[in-house]
Amino acid sequence: QVELIQSGGGSVEAGGSLRLSCAVPGRSFTLYATGWFRQVPGKEREFVGSISWSGDTTDFIDSVKDRFTISRDKAKSTVYLQMNSLKLEDTAVYYCATDPTYSGRLARNYAYWGQGTQVTVSS
After folding, report:
1. Handedness of CA 67, 87, 114, 80 (dihedral sign)
2. pLDDT, tens digit, 9 for 90 and up, residues 46-70
3. Residue 18 backbone dihedrals phi, psi, to 5 degrees
4. What is the mean pLDDT of residues 12-26?
């Protein structure tokens, strides 16, 4: 079974925006950190950004740090990745992952994963 439920992917023109959602219905992850990753065919899964368990700290790779933000709604048990000024190179399958304590860049350290959602940016 899929552990996290993702939504919000789709196709968008370069320069546009998308918001991805990552939800854990039925259980609390108030204290869980969340990471976002992306992957294209033939490449390894790439870290994009993360938010700490407290929500006080975020981390982004340089290529997205001025364009992407992470927020969360504890009442809905949902974390959001807001992607603005999208570029062609942002095209990938995006995954969310959560962990009770880890908020770093290593995929193997996250306990729970979403199913992935396609983001396609066109010119």
Report:
1. positive
2. 999 999 888 889 999 999 999 999 9
3. -145, 150
4. 92
